[in-house]
Specification:
alpha/beta; 387 residues; Rossmann fold; 7-stranded mixed beta sheet
Amino acid sequence: MEDYKYLAIVDWIKNYIVSEHLQPNDRFLSEKELCAIHSVSRQTVRQALKCLESDGVICRVRGSGTFVKNGISNGSASSKRVGVVSTYFSDYIFPQIVTGIESVLNSSGIAMQLAITHNQVCEEAQALKTMISNGVDGLIVEPSKSALPNPNMDLYQEIRRNNIPLVFFNAKYPWADFPYAAMNDDSAGQIVTDYLFDCGHKQISGIFALDDIQGHKRYGGFMRSCLAHNVRTAEKNVLWFATSERSAIFQHQQKRLIELLVNSTAVVCYNDKLAVDLLRFCREHDISVPDSLSVVGIDDSKYSTICDVPLTTVRHPHQLLGEVAAKMLIDQMTDPDTQQKDVIFVPDLVIRDSVRILDRKTRGAFGEKLLGGDAVYGAGSSFRRLL
């Protein structure tokens, strides 16, 4: 996957030049120093410096080092700037989402300041405080541990009092009255579970994240499907985990996990990353997928096609979601009185090889799996939106 870490370094360098009042011809930090500060490879730092060099912000002189060239002009410093707060950045679906946000902001001449929380509320608080003090003109935020009580409510109230436009993405806190752009996670959970029933499975278990609202909603869709198919004991076949302790399922809960798998013909996983970990666990314990156990994920990430058994999953809008979130924020910045509605994307089912069809006579709404490639059912590449 293309490495997008350099984008965060580009924003950091621009802010550093302004905060340190660096002037044209001032010596800048070395590549080695930047690598140490950001804990990244020299290649990533060079990619960031190349971007800044092409923008005329810095210049590199062979044998002498890096210098500020034009720096950040007063006009640039006073231009519109948006803070983007994401739980993660360098992996999974997050680079595509942030790229979508940045592309829209750039096309509107708006600078982006990026912060990563690692799904920790204390880091979210620090990011919000820094961005408020830096005077950002708007915020695009992915909540941290969105299903749990959040101690940062006062900060969001301050953002509201200061009339700073804000849009959440992927999820939003239940108590928050800001708009958000997200995939319909409830629908995602129901779609993959319906498909398993459609393929003849009746003993279906689920593994979901307990600290993110997406996990709760995907569980809700899973349960709705089970109840619709007259399975009344489905909640007994669910394993919960904290997102930061995903690996603990396979290390400290092996007995419970194996009991779950032995009594199931199929498993609904919280996301593709968890599904890939489960595929590895099955391989290590001689559980054949899909012959002995069918596995489905959610998000249609890069992992869904490069794993041992290509995953049946549902497609997250990825970059499109980021683009929409940025457009929603720009609308608020342009017209503060606008009544912004939530934008919810209904995902498509993507059928691959990780599900065994037990009953070919049972086709339901999806039909039989197509061989020789992905089969996509639902709204198509355009994604349906529920406003």
